[in-house]
Write a structure and sequence with these properties.
alpha/beta; 13 strands; Lambda Exonuclease, Chain A; 5-stranded mixed sheet; Nucleotidyltransferase, domain 5; 3 domains
Length: 490
């Protein structure tokens, strides 16, 4: 096997990935790959190319020798900044995100779309150093460039403020002996005739989710220690290493686990009826007042802030659904979906203030998100701030009943997500089925499809906007129906 920097980092995570790539790639499961994360990385990488001024990019070519030859030509021409500069030595290949060329050597600059330095990045840079040094280049410095999450956009993007650059040379040099040994081991592992045996562990999801996880975990039964609600991975693995795997084995072991975990496990194993704390549910319901405003936001986040006043990865609400229920149960619905391609915050905030009175009792599911967005809007729009903060301060959280386990049943399977709570309390209700929706079935899909609207045809935009409205509407209708079930318990 020839190694690239991505393959090398796979080997650092788990050498078995390399063997499976080489001999059993048909068992890969790519369903968990987040294309949006990959696209973000490309967008950030493209923008970062201009950080040091004028640059020349080596065009991608499936034939790596073409890229290597072009890199050599640019080096010979004394090009000062080369992006995607490509090198190979002894079957080890890498393209450097940004290569700065000086009279006495070069600097490797690795670009990441993250806001911090993950340990695996050092391995990535160490591999690049090894390849370039083996090719005879004097690598005088190795740096990493990542997103500065404190940057706030005002006007045109300022690359020097958007990105942070750190000197990693000392750490990269300290890894060089390991790189040589690792390369030898990884190639030997990948070339082995029989599948290597590496026990499951944290490497199955750290630093990245492994595409072979379902294959390597096929022996793990349903309702295992890895499914226990709220249990940390280190504790789960400690149980697994001792042969305690199933829920039944966990109970038989007599090991101490949290109250929440025990409720989950015992309810499943013993098929217990719902656990209901009527006093806690009554106290929650008594704290509500009518008319009741059921509110849900949808938002997007970008590594590169698209509008003034935004920071990298800052959540920006573009849509809301609002069900208004009177004490007699009568329902009204209001909704807002911003036009695509524009800053949605002002129009959303104005509409929110127009439809929700300052004294309204507002019900959400997971108040951290809605309260966070409203507080940010209040901080940006002084003339709306007082009204928005009144809404903020009057928010109640429907999730707390299920998070606290005031209500728990077997169907919740350890979760308190609205997507799990809704079918548990309202089974066989077609109008409440997220799976039956068109195009948009969860928040990630809503965020991604809204971002794609500007490039769509009028017909596609109409369908997408309709799907977004239907999805968000179901989120607040779900809260209405769940609350009705809680009122029946009271």
């Amino acid at each position: 096997m020839n190694l690239s920097k991505s393959r090398y980092c796979k080997g650092i995570q788990c050498p078995k990935i390399l063997w499976l790539d080489e001999h059993k790639s048909e068992v890969r499961d790519d369903s968990g790959i987040n294309q949006r994360i990959l696209d973000t990385g490309n967008e950030v990488g493209d923008l970062a190319m201009g950080y040091y001024g004028d640059y020349t990019e080596v065009p991608y070519n499936a034939d790596k020798s073409v890229m290597i030859a072009e890199t050599r030509r640019l080096l010979d021409a004394k090009t000062s900044v080369i992006c995607e500069a490509s090198f190979s030595h002894d079957g080890n290949f890498c393209s450097v995100d940004i290569l700065r060329v000086f009279d006495d050597g070069v600097e490797i600059v690795e670009v990441k779309s993250s806001t911090k330095i993950d340990p695996i990045y050092y391995d990535d840079m160490a591999f690049q150093y090894h390849v370039l040094a083996s090719c005879g280049l004097n690598v005088r410095k190795v740096s990493i460039m990542h997103i500065n999450n404190k940057y706030e956009r005002q006007g045109e993007i300022n690359l020097q403020e958007l990105f942070s650059v750190h000197d990693c040379t000392e750490k990269v040099l300290s890894l060089q002996n390991d790189v040589k040994a690792n390369i030898e081991e990884f190639k030997k592992t990948a070339g082995a005739k029989t599948e290597i045996n590496i026990e499951i562990g944290k490497q199955c999801s750290t630093p990245y989710d492994c595409v072979y996880r379902s294959y390597c975990w096929r022996h793990i039964p349903k309702n295992s220690v890895f499914d226990v609600s709220g249990m940390q991975i280190n504790k789960q693995l400690a149980f697994y290493d001792r042969g305690i795997v199933s829920f039944e084995q966990l109970l038989e072991s007599g090991e101490k686990i949290s109250k929440t975990a025990r409720l989950h496990v015992e309810t499943e194993v013993y098929n217990r009826p719902p656990t209901i704390n009527k006093k806690a549910i009554k106290a929650f319901l008594d704290g509500l007042s009518w008319p009741l405003y059921f509110l849900d936001f949808e938002g997007f986040q970008e590594a590169i802030p698209p509008f003034d006043g935004l920071r990298p990865y800052m959540q920006t609400p573009f849509q809301y659904s609002l069900h208004i229920q009177k004490e007699d149960g009568c329902l009204e619905h209001r909704e807002f979906l911003a036009e695509e391609g524009i800053d949605p915050r002002r129009s959303l905030a104005e509409r929110l203030c127009a439809v929700i009175p300052q004294t309204a009792c507002v019900l959400v599911y997971n108040k951290v998100y809605e309260k966070g967005r409203i507080k940010e809007l209040a901080g940006r729009f002084d003339d709306l701030s007082e009204h928005l903060m009144k809404i903020h301060n009057n928010i109640k959280d429907l999730m707390q009943t299920f998070q606290s386990r005031a209500y728990y049943c077997r169907e919740l399977d350890g979760s308190y997500s609205i997507k799990q709570v809704l079918p548990a309390l309202c089974p066989n209700a077609p109008e409440l089925d997220y799976h039956a929706l068109d195009l948009v079935h969860n928040g990630d899909e809503a965020m991604n499809i809204y971002r794609e609207l500007p490039g769509k045809s009028p017909e596609e935009r109409k369908r997408i906007r309709s799907a977004l409205l239907a999805y968000c509407r179901l989120d607040t209708l779900a809260m209405v129906r769940v609350l009705e079930k809680l009122k029946e318990i009271k």
